[in-house]
Amino acid sequence: MSRIGKLPINVPSGVDINCNEQDITVKGKFGTLENQLPTQLGIEQTDSTLIVSLQEQTRNARALHGLYRTLVNNMVVGVSEQFQKNLTLNGVGYRATVQGKSIVLNLGYSHPVTIEIPEGISIEVTKNTSINIKACDKEQLGLFAAQIRAWRTPEPYKGKGIIYEGEVVRRKAGKSGKK
Question: Can you name the residues that pair with 172 across neighbouring β-strands?
Fold first, then answer.
């Protein structure tokens, strides 16, 4: 049995969960998330806990057990607390601003980069170089942060680019001149 899959999911107050056979809907103060469990898995709801259980003991079902327990737990945490990613712009003249429903990045290109902000994601820019992204859907949050970062990944010689908070950029020595 999966060590992760057998752990119970604690449901905080203010979070409503509806389970209709394989469909699960989680509603909280930050939004509503939906997911569909495979037929090999079931979900049992007691007072303030959820347990993802195996319906059949196959190799595929055991492989999905821990995954779907974590996905359901992320849904519960997301609608109650929200997930957050912080990006930092490193480079001369690099800055970001939020204009309406899009974020505008100046990243050293000849033109500013404009990225539409998806529904359900909120962005806050502080000090022109720090971007705080919040969302209740962890997958959508990570995807959007990766799309922003893809415009200028950190380079190893000067350390310029868009980095995640806490990320360490491995630096390389440049060319050594003639002696």
Answer: none
Q: In b/e form, how buried is each residue of 7-26, taking b as 16+ CB within 10 angstroms?
A: eebebeeebebebeeeebeb
Q: 115-167, pLDDT tens digit by residue?
A: 999 998 999 999 988 999 999 999 999 999 999 999 989 989 888 999 999 88
pLDDT, mean of residues 13-31: 88
Identity of residue 172:
K
Strand partners, 20: 23
Is residue 138 within 8 A of residue 74, CB to CB? The reply is yes
Query: For residue 172, with 0-12 CB atoms within 10 Å meaning exposed, 13-18 middle and 19 or more buried, which class applies?
Result: exposed
Alpha-carbon distance of 169 to 154, in angstroms, equals: 7
Indicate the pTM of the whole model: 0.86
CA angle 13, 19, 24 (to 5 degrees): 85
Pairing of strands 102-106, 31-36: unpaired
Residues of the chain by 3-state class (helix, strand, coil), percent to 5: 20, 40, 40
77-118: pLDDT as tens digits:
999 999 999 999 988 889 999 999 999 999 888 999 999 999
Structure tokens at 70: 């974590």
Residue with tokens 């974590």: 70
